[in-house]
Amino acid sequence: MSTDHRADELLDLLGEERVRQILAATSRDPLSAKELSEECDVALSTIYRRVEDMVANDLLVEQTQIETDGSHHSVYEANVDHIDVDIEDGTIDIKMDVREDAAQRFSRIWTDIRDT
């Protein structure tokens, strides 16, 4: 069996119950680390570790939410709509359908900042 490093990392991540909980929770609404900690019933430090890995692997996107009082904090949203795992000819290939690419994300963030 051969897989590339990214496929191995994604499969490892998706094998973790907490990662799946975070992905499911953030597929409904963007949530802060504190909200994820409460919803998943795990320590905030665990959420931060998992979220960091998930953002690095494009499973989540981090956004800055600006409050009416001017304060701000990060919220996380699922960035993947569909994951395909193909096993063929001795290889495993993973394809992810992400919600938006970096250019789209930058445009959306810029618009949000400008409109605030």
UniProtKB/TrEMBL annotation:
Xref: SUPFAM superfamilies: Winged helix' DNA-binding domain
CDD domains the record matches: HTH_ARSR
Pfam families (UniProt xref): HTH_20
Superkingdom to which the source organism belongs: Archaea
This protein's name: ArsR/SmtB family transcription factor
Species the sequence originates in: Halorubrum pallidum
